[in-house]
Amino acid sequence: MQLLQELPMQQCKGNIFQIQRWSINDGEGIRSTVFFKGCPLRCKWCSNPESWQGKPEVLFFHEKCIACKRCLPVCSQGAISPAGNIIRFAREKCSGCAGCCEVCPTGARKLIGAAVTVEDVLKVVKRDTVFYRESGGGVTFSGGEPFAQPGFLQQLAAACSQLGIDTAVETSGYFDFEQVKDIFAYLDCVFVDIKHMDDAVHMQMTGVSNRKILANIAQISKLHPHTIVRVPFIAEVNANEQNIKKMCDYLKNNTRVAGVELLPYHDFGQSKYSAIGVRGQTFTTPAATEIADANRIISNYGIGIVDFK
């Protein structure tokens, strides 16, 4: 069997939904963040719910629709239908052809996601190599879940590494470690989430158990010296002393992580939930004093505090 890294770049395709240039919160320096499409988790606070499905999909922003009906004749799947003075969208019938997006005059319909090659991505990220060098930045692979597309991730990370571009990945940690462990050799930094230490709460809030994630963090941190734990810090979910101390106990006794970064909750992604046909849920951002108290606990355990803001 031919190794993934030996395959020609044009043979390896992946699904992404955005390349964000000039990012400053996804690692050191100025970075380009490549957002992978597809994720095995369904976090109730997710700021990128359009990343959940692995294939391209049409988002429908109802509030922008003026019911002009231009989309009706271009949909061959019967996914769009009139209902009085509104337009209904049956997502399960949509093929993602994007015909409706092209004729919509208000931007109520938007195709999210595209199948791209490694070379397609490199053409974008190489534009900013001078800024990577001057700022100590590079490329960050985010999502979605990058490790859900291991072949594409490995090819892309290897290509960036060969060009001398610093690479980082943001991951949920929910994957089979043995299947992806070779990819870490091409990464300069690994950001991995801990959502909650209680497995039942984690299951309720994300749809998956945290056991595989915690085990993977231990293995990754012993393999990679620049492993940083990120915590989406949410008042009603995990911003409490008991959870933070339980996390620190685990990290101190089982891992070699380089530090922890708390990411205070924000609701920037709320408008996307109705656009993908899902009921969203809002949470509360912890007060500055709660964030400071949590950082103090982490520091008292001898674990480094990371902040890229």
UniProtKB/TrEMBL annotation:
The lineage of its organism: Bacteria, Bacillati, Bacillota, Negativicutes, Selenomonadales. It is an enzyme of class 1 (oxidoreductase). The keyword Zinc-finger does not apply. It comes from Sporomusa termitida. Belongs to the organic radical-activating enzymes family. Its EC number is 1.97.1.-. It comes from the Bacteria. Keywords: 4Fe-4S, Iron, Iron-sulfur, Lyase, Metal-binding, Oxidoreductase, S-adenosyl-L-methionine. Residues 25-309 form the Radical SAM core domain. Its cofactor is [4Fe-4S] cluster. GO terms for molecular function: 4 iron, 4 sulfur cluster binding; lyase activity; metal ion binding; oxidoreductase activity. This is Choline trimethylamine-lyase activating enzyme.
